[in-house]
Amino acid sequence: MTRAPITDDCGVAQALNVVGEWRTFLIVRNLFNGMRTFDALQSHLGISTSVLSARLKTLTEAGVIEKRPDPQDGRSHEYRLTERGLDLYPILIALLQWGEKWTPNGKGPRLQLVDRETGQPIRALAVTAQDGRTLGPRDVTPILGPGGNDHMRALIARRNTRKAKT
């Protein structure tokens, strides 16, 4: 079943039109980890070929991945992340870190990321100010940008009204 695209003119909503289906980030995760072929992705993820085809088509049309002829077998194809796809890396890592923190399996981390150069674990991702301070949701104020619309203006006004009451 295909869902209708989100029409809200918001960066979050529009990103979800591309990567919001839950299997999509599993595909992206596997591409970051070196899987390139349809068969490898399908076998590892255990999803139907029609669902995988649909997700790969969406990602290709959105410019997140590109489909190339397989250099070893000209009859097959491989999938590669584009620059747009590579920009999903921090989101993938944030999801991984959130999942390890809030849905542990009781045996310890399922996956740890270390700096290839130093062998040290990477830091948890955080929103930071220009000077490096870590910022939480209460430390940031959204303002309407030049591409903003009345819908976003109302969202910001609602937040600012609620904040003024607290």
Automatic annotation (TrEMBL):
**Gene3D superfamilies listed in its UniProt record:** Winged helix-like DNA-binding domain superfamily/Winged helix DNA-binding domain (1.10.10.10)
Does the record's keyword annotation contain Flavoprotein? no
- Keyword annotations from UniProtKB, A to Z: DNA-binding, Transcription, Transcription regulation
Residue span(s) of domain HTH hxlR-type: 10-107
User: In its keyword annotation, does this UniProt entry include Nucleus?
Assistant: no
Name the PANTHER family for this protein: TRANSCRIPTIONAL REGULATOR, MARR FAMILY (PTHR33204), TRANSCRIPTIONAL REGULATORY PROTEIN (PTHR33204:SF18)
This protein is called what? Winged helix-turn-helix transcriptional regulator
